[in-house]
């Protein structure tokens, strides 16, 4: 069975301006063939790709600050995500998380976590609130689907 290769969009700021554009990882590697360019990528968007796991290709982009894994079929996050020491925004809305991924608690610089519309119970919400730093902005959906900040 052929495994679908997800289209991973990378948004980066162009030097000297605020214009942003999107490229897939494959396009980026083929276009430049330069690992330094890949390391310069700050924003990764894997929105709505029906992913069941986070693509390992993302590991190459070690300086990610924003990671959008919204609207997929994820149930866990890989341990290697902790290598993103500059990650400050993680969006994992609309996935299939039934438990809070333990690796989230090791993301030391995380300032914003969006985890709405996942089948989390109150015990998981309490674990999340207790385990995250006070300065982390957490957006979640309670078990009765009331959104909270």
Topology, please?
Elements: E1 9-13, E2 20-24, H1 25-32, H2 35-39, E3 43-45, E4 66-68, E5 89-91, E6 112-115, H3 122-131, E7 137-141, E8 147-148
3D architecture notes:
By secondary structure, this protein is of the alpha/beta class. It has a single domain (9-148), classed as Leucine-rich repeat, LRR (right-handed beta-alpha superhelix). Helix content is 15%, strand content 20%. It has 3 helices and 8 strands, in the order ββααββββαββ. Strands 2-1-3-4-5-6-7-8 form an 8-stranded mixed beta sheet. Strand 1 and strand 2 form a beta hairpin. The longest helix is centred in the C-terminal third of the chain and has 10 residues, at 122-131. It is globular, with a radius of gyration of 16 Å. The N and C termini lie far apart (42 Å). Residues 1-5 and 13-21 have low confidence and may be disordered.
